[in-house]
Design brief:
Blueprint (H helix, E strand, L loop, with lengths): L18 H4 L6 H9 L9 E5 L4 H14 L4 E4 L11 E3 L2 E2 L2 H10 L1 H6 L4 H15 L4 E5 L15 E6 L7 H4 L3 H8 L8 E4 L4 H14 L2 E4 L15 H18 L6 H10 L7 E5 L2 E5 L5 H10 L5 E5 L7 H8 L5 E4 L10 H7 L7 E3 L3 H8 L5 E5 L2 H13 L2
Parallel strand pairs: 1-5, 1-6, 2-5, 6-7, 7-8, 10-14, 11-12, 11-14, 12-13
Antiparallel strand pairs: 2-3, 3-4, 9-10
Helix pairs in contact: 3-10, 3-11, 4-6, 8-9, 12-13
């Protein structure tokens, strides 16, 4: 299958400072004040919100496809992007026009400066303005980080929320236990909200139940979709993500939105989102791509793979659990080439070998992308590219041009 056609890159460096320059600075008060000064564009349309550690983008994509099939004008706000900033906002099934995105960001420059907005807050505020001007019926908002203090939570009209799989990730910001992380994710709950979650591990489920009761949120648990349900997105974990999207659609139906069973099924059967267990052919070799950027995602990916030798090209951000990710992914007969991620601190092969001495012979450093990709082309073991969406982003154009 060919890669999903993504929008062309758009230059925003004159309007948006690098995310790494400001760092993570969670909080709602800056954006809430800026939105007030902007005339509250977020109050001109209702929204639903999706939180969690893994699967948020897939849930948003499947729900968005259902809403499109139902004829509901929808804006889908996601993060991060693979190739272009325009991937972050989809309006009524189309990527945001680059000049419209630049125009909105230009109009928010003074607000961003006066309220000291982070780059994510700035693009979120601009997105709310774009959605308001486009007169959408409903926005689907993917949480960027956490939930309680995430910029998307500045939108107050969120009567339905979805919760993807919750695991250990971003511990430096959200807490070093599942209970702490779950509490931050549950910060999106509010009185009168219907929250939909697929099964979670015991510690997470208990926190979600407690926070739902305390916030007067109706928490509904949904079972993974049956294997008979057609899904465009591959991977067993998408059965849980699809169930959350279906549950959110059902909750919206209760709130007055007309989403038929046919529209729900069409959305599940057609929704595509790049870099999630995606297969393509490149230079005569079949490749598997998956973002798998944390240990829970790595474990889910490994469960999908037959027990046979594989050749990996991995890029892992330095603040992630690199040792656990590599140890989870690699089988005893696998080989891995480690590639530095552009513009991000990354785990090196030397560090991984030092931390995983039993796997020293399996781990090599790729000096550049061309060397790493060339290593995958050798006959025999199946090639897989994983470890970070930033790695897929760095390779996307090359893989697309030569497929």
């Amino acid at each position: 299958m060919q890669p999903l056609q993504l929008p062309a890159p758009v230059e925003l460096s004159d309007l948006l400072e690098p995310f790494s320059q400001r760092g993570v600075d969670l909080g709602l008060y800056r954006l809430q004040a800026a939105l007030a000064d902007a005339g509250h564009p977020e109050k001109r349309f209702p929204a639903v919100q999706v939180a969690g550690t893994n699967g948020k983008g897939s849930i948003c994509t499947m729900l968005g496809a259902m809403l499109k099939a139902a004829g509901i004008r929808t804006g889908i706000y996601r993060s991060p992007h693979l190739l272009s900033w325009c991937e972050r906002l989809e309006l009524d099934g189309n990527w945001i026009n680059p000049e419209k995105l630049r125009e909105a960001l230009r109009s928010w420059q003074d607000l961003g400066a006066s309220h000291k907005l982070t780059p994510f807050e700035l693009i979120t505020g601009a997105t709310f303005s774009i959605c308001a001007d486009a007169k959408i019926d409903l926005a689907v908002l993917e949480v960027g980080l956490g939930g309680r203090l995430d910029a998307t939570t500045a939108h107050s009209d969120r009567s339905v929320v979805g919760i993807g799989s919750i695991g250990l990730d971003h511990c430096e910001y959200l807490g070093d236990s599942l209970e702490q992380i779950a509490a931050e994710k549950a910060g999106v709950f509010k009185p009168g909200t219907i929250a939909i979650s697929a099964p979670q591990v015991k510690q997470v489920a208990e926190v979600l139940e407690q926070r739902a009761a305390a916030s007067h949120t109706q928490l509904r648990w949904v079972a993974p979709l049956a294997n008979e349900q057609p899904l465009a997105l591959g991977g067993r974990w998408q059965r849980s993500n699809g169930a959350v999207a279906r549950g959110m659609a059902a909750a919206l139906n209760e709130r007055g939105w007309k989403i038929s069973e046919a529209a729900i099924n069409k959305g599940l059967a057609t929704a595509r989102w790049p870099g999630r267990l995606e297969q393509l052919e490149w230079r005569g070799r079949k490749l598997l791509l998956d973002g798998a950027h944390n240990q829970p995602a790595a474990a889910a990916l490994r469960q999908e793979l037959p027990d046979q030798p594989r050749r990996w090209l991995l890029g892992i951000q330095r603040h992630k659990q690199g040792l656990e990710i590599v140890n989870t992914l690699l089988g005893s007969n696998d080989q891995a080439w480690i590639l530095d991620l552009p513009n991000h601190q990354s785990w090196s092969a030397a560090e991984l070998r030092a931390g995983l001495p039993d796997r020293c012979s399996q781990i090599q450093q790729a000096s550049n992308a061309a060397e790493g990709l060339e290593a995958l082309l050798a006959p025999g073991a199946t090639p897989v590219i994983a470890g970070s969406l930033y790695l897929l982003s760095a390779l996307w154009e090359q893989l697309n041009e030569n497929s």
